[in-house]
Amino acid sequence: MKFPSIFRVNQPRRFQINPRHYDPVKEEIHQRTENIKRELEARGVLEYEDREELDRRYSHGSSIRGAFTSGSPIKKQPSTVMQSAGMMRMIIFVLLVAGFGGYLYIGPDFFYYLLYLGAAVALLVSLFKLKPSKKKAT
After folding, report:
1. Would you say 111 and 99 are in contact if contact means Cβ atoms under 8 Å apart?
2. Positions of the chain with pLDDT under 70
3. Beta carbons of 36 and 29 less than 8 angstroms apart
């Protein structure tokens, strides 16, 4: 039994979906008739209709079944190591720890050393990007 209350207590949200009409029997009958029509066209009993249209519409089975499992952009993995968020966090963390430790051991001059090192790395990266890549001729 629920006791009366002054305050309104939040209720958990419920999933509510209004399904679209989908009749699997009707779709199966339609696919069968199209398959029979294709077989009769292949035998030469019927004239060919727009073949590309039929292949595009009915050769892959149901348009609903399996549509959401074929892969999505959410599952896409990063293409390079530098695009990974975890790797970028680790690099930033290592730089911060190295900066703090270097400042404790060497002093303020450590930041100048880091600046020179960063400039050297940026120069090397830019030189390697300007260099044309060699492709194998096969």
Report:
1. yes
2. 1-2, 48-83, 133, 135-138
3. no
Say what the pLDDT of residue 93 is: 93
Task: Supply 66's token pair.
Answer: 């399996």
Which of 2, 66, 63 has the alpha carbon at shortest distance from 28?
A: 63
Could you give the angle at the alpha carbon of 30 between the alpha carbons of 28 and 31, nearest 5°? 65
CA dist., res. 104 & res. 94, Å (int):
15
- DSSP type of residue 137: -
Listed residue (38, 62, 63) closest to 50, CA to CA: 38
- Give the C-alpha distances (Å, rounded to integers) separating 2 from 9, 13, 18, 117: 12, 19, 31, 69
Task: Write the Ramachandran bin of 71: left for phi over 0, alpha for psi from -120 to 50, otherwise beta.
Answer: left
Alpha-carbon distances, residue 3 vs 12, 54, 117 (angstroms): 18, 63, 69
